[in-house]
Amino acid sequence: MASSAPDPRLAFRIPSLPPSFYYIPSFISPEEEASLLSKIPPNRWTNLTHRRLQAVASTLTKSNTLLAAPLPSYLLDPIVTRFTTLGIFAHTPHKAPNHVLVNEYKPGEGIMAHEDGPAYAPVVATVSLGGAVMLESAVNPAPIHIAPLYTTHRILCEPRSLLVTLAPAYINTMHCVPAVTHDVDLRRATVANWDLLGEAWRYAAADDVDGSGGSGGTNVRTTRVSLTYRDVLKVSNAASRVLGLGGRR
Ligand SMILES: O=C(O)CCC(=O)C(=O)O
Ligand SMILES: [Fe+2]
């Protein structure tokens, strides 16, 4: 019976993590990666202390409202088409992403621990381009202002991969990208998605190609761009029509 067939998406769930993180290596091809990198507008970056950022199509208003504007076509195809096939945004209010935060990290850069918060439906789909980085996720057993963080998990985001974070992980965890030039001690015991990596051998120590022991490998950071797709809950069509807003920052 079709209903008893295993959900193919489960193959990509990171099993050692709390629900739900999914990791898909080689979500896009090297050609698609190069094309995406060439289409990111060079003049729309906002420089932050440890990374630079583009909010596409625009920055949310103070009330966390998106002024309706279509995503540019380079961010839609093929990525959003594949999201639709996988049903990633099937249960969000708009059934599709309507906002993308594009981050760029040079070696030594990162993003401090944070939650993505209530402006969005609890789904983030992140495509990595360029270099690999370690994303750290800290599970919080209680509301963040009451209890300190405990268990930290490490997720290696390879170039061309897709990382999907769904509720309850979206709500119960904080995440960061450490601002380092090298991600060290890479092996099965310390990298939650080791067995889902497309090219784990690249990151293993020379004496430890299966990642199970040894001294652990190192990822030497190079510039990495992340495309983080989200569905903003509050969308204003009126404001963008009347005020002519909604342009890209
Ligand atoms: O670059 C990443 O993978 C994480 C970015 C992030 O956490 C964010 O934009 O909220
Ligand atoms: Fe985030």
From TrEMBL:
One of its GO terms (cellular component) is nucleus. Keywords: Dioxygenase, Iron, Metal-binding, Nucleus, Oxidoreductase. GO terms for molecular function: dioxygenase activity; metal ion binding. Residues 96-233 form the Fe2OG dioxygenase domain. PROSITE patterns: FE2OG_OXY. It is found in: Nucleus. The keyword Secreted does not apply. It comes from the Eukaryota. Belongs to the iron/ascorbate-dependent oxidoreductase family. Belongs to the alkB family. This is Fe2OG dioxygenase domain-containing protein. It comes from Mytilinidion resinicola.
